[in-house]
């Protein structure tokens, strides 16, 4: 269990932008550096983007080539504008598989937060052989029907828009509420969460169909096919990784480890960046 570390805030890590054509879509990557070192690939949660890893990436670049992907429909990656947009776990996982082939990534550390952890679960289960280890960061392996219905409803209505980026940033809130992220971190995330649209208004970058088309699925059975070392990383104030979920996963994948970051809610990389780095490194050092 890590110690709280908000008393020692981190600076966002520098990065370069990269774009890769995958399954007919132009996907955006943030490359934090470390080329030639073992790769570490990070996936954000629903309605988020790669910047959720800005405050932790620098903790790994001394030893790893750290990359963070914007999933389709998120961040600076392309939206699926086809007649039947595909925003289910299998599609995201197929994008991830294609990306690892294009970039020739092998023996990499895969870290996925929230929905990114669910996508990573499907990926690790469906496409074995490339990832070396997997860190699932506070993901809900069994989303309730009520939760999915709420997401669908949110995605089916018009989102808020603002006249300026400053107004967007001032109104921005981390969801779910309860974050311990500092105001500077929240402002940083807000600035990178928005863009101007054709009407000149500022809105969240995410395609709202990501929520409108969300489908629930029990992903616990996927763990029967995950043989690589893995960590279920929970957090003190989040109910997502329960003792029941841990027992069900370990019954299928006994190699799985479990750890908790304290002093934070769901958004571990924002609430307690140093705690995340410490906990992830403890796991990685055990599997070297």
What features would you highlight for this structure?
two-stranded antiparallel ribbon; single chain; eight-stranded mixed sheet; globular; 10 strands; about 290 residues; alpha/beta; disordered N terminus; 9 helices; Rossmann fold
Notes on the structure:
The protein has 9 helices and 10 strands. By secondary structure, it is of the alpha/beta class. It has a domain at 16-142 and 218-287: 3-Layer(aba) Sandwich (Rossmann fold). It has an 8-stranded mixed beta sheet, sandwiched between helices. Strands 7-8 form a two-stranded antiparallel ribbon. Helix 1 crosses helix 2 (115-126). The two termini are 20 Å apart.
Q: Brief overview, please?
A:
This protein is an alpha/beta fold. It has 9 helices and 10 strands.
What is the H/E order?
Answer: EEEEHEHEHHHEEHEHEHH
Principal-axes geometry comes out as: globular
Mean pLDDT: 94
Q: Give the helix tally.
A: 9
- Biggest sheet: strands side by side, in what order? 1-2-4-3-5-6-9-10
What summary fits the major beta sheet? 8 strands, mixed
| The named CATH superfamily of the domain at 16-142 and 218-287 | Alpha/Beta hydrolase fold, catalytic domain
Cα Rg: 18 Å
CATH class of the domain at 16-142 and 218-287: Alpha Beta
Strand content: 15-25%
**What's the helical proportion of residues?**
25-40%
Reported by name, the CATH topology of the domain at 16-142 and 218-287 is Rossmann fold
CATH architecture of the domain at 16-142 and 218-287: 3-Layer(aba) Sandwich
N-C termini distance? 20 Å
């Amino acid at each position: 269990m890590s110690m709280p570390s908000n008393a020692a805030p981190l600076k966002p890590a520098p990065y370069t932008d990269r774009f890769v054509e995958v399954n007919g879509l132009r996907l955006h990557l943030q490359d934090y550096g470390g080329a030639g070192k073992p790769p570490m690939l990070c996936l954000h949660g629903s309605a988020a983007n790669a910047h959720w890893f800005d405050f932790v990436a620098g903790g790994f670049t001394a030893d790893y080539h750290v990359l963070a992907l914007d999933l389709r429909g998120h961040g600076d990656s392309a939206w699926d504008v086809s007649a039947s947009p595909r925003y289910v776990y299998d599609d995201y996982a197929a994008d991830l598989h294609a990306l690892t082939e294009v970039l020739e990534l092998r023996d990499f550390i895969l870290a996925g937060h929230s929905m990114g952890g669910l996508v990573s679960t499907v990926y690790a289960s469906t496409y074995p052989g490339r990832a070396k280890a997997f860190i699932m960061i506070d993901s809900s392996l069994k989303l309730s029907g009520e939760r999915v219905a709420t997401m669908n409803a949110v995605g089916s209505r018009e989102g808020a828009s603002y006249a300026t980026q400053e107004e967007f940033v001032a109104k921005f809130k981390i969801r779910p509420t309860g974050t311990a992220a500092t105001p500077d971190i929240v402002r940083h995330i807000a600035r990178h969460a928005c863009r101007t649209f054709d009407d000149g208004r500022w809105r969240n970058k995410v395609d709202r169909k990501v929520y409108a088309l969300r489908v629930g699925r029990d992903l616990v059975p996927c763990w029967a096919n995950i043989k690589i070392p893995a960590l279920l990383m929970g957090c003190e104030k989040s109910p997502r990784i329960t003792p029941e979920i841990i027992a069900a996963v370990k019954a299928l994948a006994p190699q799985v480890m479990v750890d908790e970051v304290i002093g934070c809610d769901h958004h571990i990389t924002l609430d307690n960046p140093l705690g995340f780095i410490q906990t992830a490194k403890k796991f990685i050092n055990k599997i070297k």
